[in-house]
Amino acid sequence: MPMPGKLPALLTSLAFVLVNAVLPNISIAEENRVTFPANIDKLVHYTTVTRGEVEEILTTQEAIDAVANNQPIPYGTHVVIRFHRDREITRYFVMQKGRGWGQDYPNGRTKDWQFQFYNADQSIKLEENTQRCQSCHARRASDQFIYTFDELKDFQ
């Protein structure tokens, strides 16, 4: 039987074991309609950002042309961040625009854009919650919700 002074330490240890045993199996990825782009090899690499990892950002030529002509990015467009560390792909972040997708959320958040993280093998990264991505990108409404909009606009 544990001694009264040892009980908090025992409970803390037990909680640590339970959290580490259970949490890795819990999915926090938000349900959405995003698909991994089947044509990823045909997407255009329009800019690179380095924030700890090298982030190559890609999209379709149609999206580039639309932005260059001050038009909305077309429905069906994917914007992909391909993350690299030590020259190895570690994961992907995919934004996809679909007609009417903003209706999936009560406040419309990022209109018709939805987000998903994928593992290097292109399977959904279940432990990533994209709700925080949507809340951040929502601040970029004037740039079609894209943080690298200026780079996209300037790409030749």
TrEMBL record:
InterPro entries named among the record's database cross-references: Cytochrome_P460, Cytochrome_P460_sp
Pfam family, one: Cytochrome_P460
Domain Cytochrome P460 residue range list: 45-148
Name used for this protein in its record: Cytochrome P460 domain-containing protein
Naturally occurring in which organism (per UniProt): Halioxenophilus aromaticivorans
